[in-house]
Amino acid sequence: MLKKKLIPTPLELGNVHRSRVGARKATSPVRYRLLFIFWLCLRVVWHLVMARIRKPAGPGGKYTPLRLAQLVRESAERLGGLWIKAAQIMAMRRDIFPKIFCDELAALHDRAVGFPGDVAVQIIEQELNCSIKDVFREFDVVPLAAASIGQVHVARLRETGKKVAIKVQRPGIIDSFRNDLDIFAGYLNFLKLIRFMPWGRWDEMFQKLQGTLADEVDYRIEAAAMRRMRRTLKQDKIYVPRVYSRYCSKRVLVMEFIDGVLMSDYIHSLIDEPKRAKQWRKENNVRTKKLGERLFLSFLMQALEDNLAHGDLHPGNIMLLKNSRIAFIDFGSVSVLDKGFLEKYRIAIRYVALRDFSKFFDVNLTMVPGVPNVDIEKMRSEVVRELEGWEALTDVKGIPYEQRALTGANVRLAAIFGTYKVPPNWGLLRLMRSSAALDASLKFLIPEVNFFKLTRRHFQRLNQRRAKFVRSKHSREALANTIGDLMRLPAGVGENLIFQGELIRKRAMNFQAQISKAAEVGKALLTTALNIGLIATVLVVARYLSKQHDVGTKALAQLPVRDVFSSMPHLSPGMWLVVIVLSFYLLQNLRKLVKVLGVTGVGTNPFV
Fold first, then answer.
1. CA distance 69 to 65
2. Running DSSP on this structure, what letter comes out for residue 398?
3. Pairing state of beta strands 309-310 and 252-256?
4. Last residue of a domain, one of 487, 503, 522
5. What is the pLDDT of the chain when averaged over all its residues?
6. CA torsion through residues 546, 552, 558, 560, sign
7. Is residue 527 part of a domain?
């Protein structure tokens, strides 16, 4: 449980008042949603067309990327659920969409009108298979907060009297998601049909959306993530609420209630009443620089070392405690990345800290799914130039946070990769989204930050932890495990050679299949050209014999090609012989090319 000495004093918001959410009967008007989405698509297309009619921003200058982003954001907020997640994923695609468009969608938060408290009570009793009074001494039927997937109620456990937060899933949300996924899949299929940005990997985007929703509608997954992160974040002095597993199910999550101050409330107070915010910091021994550095270093540790990162660290999910301590809430989005990608990303970040941008680019290329046929050196020079420009800004006083932030550099790199149509890596996009969400807090805590120094500090702390571990008693067990791994190394190398050999063989077969298809197409084209050339040569010879030696004139006059003969130019005998020789020369070369591309088969030119 959270120690009482870490519970801060309340922050009076003054003019800013965060009211509790209302409630209404839950409905799911699928037909209305379908029409609404269709109308939204028409408005987006109209906006894009009008923006191109007359630049800048079309007639009246009102068809801007910002206005389009506002339209999409407002529509996603009205639709809720899947469409908010889809808009947030669109905000990750900075390789396709303009920065101002992505920034607007990145600020999208999942808020909704709550459903009635008596419905929440029914769901809890159904999931726990008992009366709510058997578990909770008190239960507030008015939700504290609500989103499209569920809402949060405050209660007290009957056994201990501990204050808890109860997350209850919205009724009918799974059916609603299923219907919305069908609609979304239809629009993605349309984009694929018209070949809209084929390098955008729309299928993978849809799969990521499916996976995200599947995780978020099962609260058992969130409970497991909270238990794991409660252990991993302890070393960073970041608190994670305790989960009461015996009261949790797929649709109900019971966790410790955190008495803290939301980062979003602190930011509002800092903007509207800075004196009040300063007084609160003084009362609770909160230092903003220490807070900001702790947040950023913890993010690097989560992403690079733990491979278990909070995926949505916007100010509404960060709680401020006394003595510059922090608590995280809402673990519905947790990132676990592929280990191969993570190792490459760790190396890339180390090169950034060392300011070796050329090697950073090389490592980045190994992380993308495929590199198109582009000028790599030109792309490298553009990336290095952008990073050098970003580096120059980090030491300049008074430069806005957005220009010195790590996310700003990532955005510029994504734009360059998008220009060269380099497909994105979704693991990298998820980390960029998490970093962008964290920036909303960091720009108020450490506006003059130097990310090179902070990143180097992360690697220094990591080396210190490793050195400390070597001196500990646990290092003996680790050493024994390492020796065991070394003994198994020859067998592992053999297995890897088998697997890699099979993989190389399959790739070679795929490459051979692609080459074979290209050869078949080339062979068909050359065979057609050969047939046409053969016919043309026969006609040329016939024309020569007919005009110069009067051979077969009457017979040729009866053929359907007589008009072709009449349209042929009148040449001297010497020129006709030159044309005939050149025709046979071209036929011979075409015949050799066709033989190079493959053997003859059914339906091929018998002349070959």
1. 6
2. T
3. unpaired
4. 487
5. 79
6. negative
7. yes
CA atoms of 419 and 375, how far apart (whole Å): 12
CA distance 103 to 326: 26
Number of Cβ atoms within 10 Å of the Cβ of 248:
22
Give the residue ranges of the chain where pLDDT is below 70: 14-32, 54-61, 92, 94-96, 107-112, 197-200, 469-524, 526, 530, 539-540, 542-571, 576, 594-608
What is the pLDDT, as a whole number, of residue 17? Answer: 47
Q: Answer yes or no: do 351 and 449 share one domain.
A: yes
The Cα angle at residue 335 between residues 330 and 341, in degrees rounded to 5: 170
> Strands, E, within 510-551: which ranges?
none
pLDDT at residue 510, rounded to an integer: 53
Instruction: Report if residue 378 sits inside a domain.
Output: yes
Backbone angles phi, psi at 153, to 5 degrees: -115, 155
Residues spanned by the domain of 592: 491-597
What is the enclosing helix (H) or strand (E) of 310?
Answer: strand 309-310
> 480 to each of 324, 475, 486, how far by Cα in Å?
40, 9, 10
Q: In angstroms, rounded to a whole number, what is the distance separating the alpha carbons of residues 148 and 84?
A: 9
Phi, psi dihedral angles at 385 (to 5 degrees): -65, -40
Residues 579 and 478 in one domain: no
d(C-alpha 157, C-alpha 446), whole Å: 39
Residue 95 carries which DSSP code?
Answer: T
pLDDT in tens, 229-239: 999 998 888 99
Report how far residue 93's alpha carbon sits from residue 196's, in angstroms, rounded to the nearest whole number: 14
Question: Residue 145: in which H helix or E strand, if any?
Answer: strand 145-146
Active site residues: 312
Tokens of 461: 């702390």
CA distance from start to end of the chain: 85
